[in-house]
Amino acid sequence: MSPTATIAVSGMQAASRRLEVSASNVANARSTGALPNADGTLPAGAPKAYDPLELVQSNVAGGGTQTTITRSSSGTSASYDPTAPFANKDGLVAAPNVDLAQEMISQLVAKYSFAANAKVLKASDEMSRTVIDMKV
Fold first, then answer.
1. For residue 56, is pLDDT > 70?
2. Using one digit for the tens of pLDDT, what is the confidence trace for 86-113?
3. Are the C-beta atoms of residues 46 and 33 closer than 8 Å to each other?
4. Pick from 81, 78, 80, 23: which is nearest to 52 by CA?
């Protein structure tokens, strides 16, 4: 595979992972859990709130990109839901800090990034075919 194609494929893989991370965040945006105690522990038997994910994308020496999935630094925030069985005495639960508008933007970035890298891959393939045809 040509270096151009390798770079395009790594970009397509990064776009796919970006979409996976965003889809996970959107799917779990309303997954609440118990608020941690003052010492940071959860009450016994209480569920933990979903920790949003982030995609960290970095350059690879020689071209291309790689991705790492991490837990978001924004974590969770207190949300009022007195009907939850794990709500504290004030009716608060932990809710993930997922910004749905930002997730939509992330999904659009993934879409256009994937499409652009697919076009690069197609152009690389066409150039390789042209070179092969010239030699024959």
1. yes
2. 999 999 999 999 999 999 999 999 999 9
3. yes
4. 23
Give the total residue count for the chain. 136
Q: Tell me the Cα Rg of the chain.
A: 22
Q: Residue 11: name the closest of 119, 104, 129, 127 by CA.
A: 119
Question: Cα–Cα distance between 33 and 105 in angstroms, integer?
Answer: 26
What is the separation of C-alpha 94 from the centre of its chain, rounded to a whole number of angstroms? Answer: 21
Phi, psi dihedral angles at 70 (to 5 degrees): -125, 165
The two tokens of residue 104 are 């939509």
Q: Which of helix, strand or coil describes residue 127?
A: helix
SS3 call for 69: strand
Alpha carbon distances (Å) from 106 to 20, 55, 73, 95: 10, 10, 17, 21
What three-state secondary structure class fits 23? helix
* Residue pair 81/87 in contact by the 8 Å Cβ criterion: yes
Q: Given this model, what pLDDT does residue 130 score?
A: 79
| Cross-strand pairs, 96 | 76
